[in-house]
Amino acid sequence: MRLKLAEFKALYKAWKTGVPPLDHFLLSFLVWVEEKLIDNRVRVEVDEAIKTWEMLHNDDIVSPVYTEKPGDNALSFSEMGLTAPWYDDTYDEK
């Protein structure tokens, strides 16, 4: 078991008693608290980053439009089309 943060290392050095069982218990407790603190900090940072990303990329999701034209007679095929609302047909040749 090792402490990662300098604050917790300083606490362990200040609270160390010199009695091995108590020192081991103290170290175990500080490692447990440190892990909980680090997990909480990471969770908060990730949640904030996700919220920021969602605010910057708040695009409305629009479904494409499906169309179908029946054929001229019984032997011809129907014409089906799929058009996305964001599609710009300005440069298409007709």
Structural account:
The chain is mainly α. It has a domain of 51 residues. It has two helices and two strands, in the order ααββ. A two-stranded antiparallel ribbon has the order 1-2. Helix 1 packs antiparallel against helix 2. The model has no long low-confidence stretch (mean pLDDT 86).
**What is the 3D form?**
rod-shaped
**Run of helices and strands:** HHEE
Q: Helicity level, as a percent range?
A: 40-55%
Strand content: 5-15%
Number of helical regions: 2
The main β sheet shows up as: 2 strands, antiparallel
> What structural class is derived from the secondary structure elements?
mainly alpha
List low-confidence stretches: none
Task: Measure the end-to-end span.
Answer: 73 Å
- In order across it, which strands form the biggest sheet? 1-2
Number of strands: 2
> What's the pLDDT, averaged over the residues?
86
Question: Any idea what the radius of gyration is?
Answer: 32 Å
Question: TL;DR?
Answer:
With 94 residues, the protein is mostly helical.
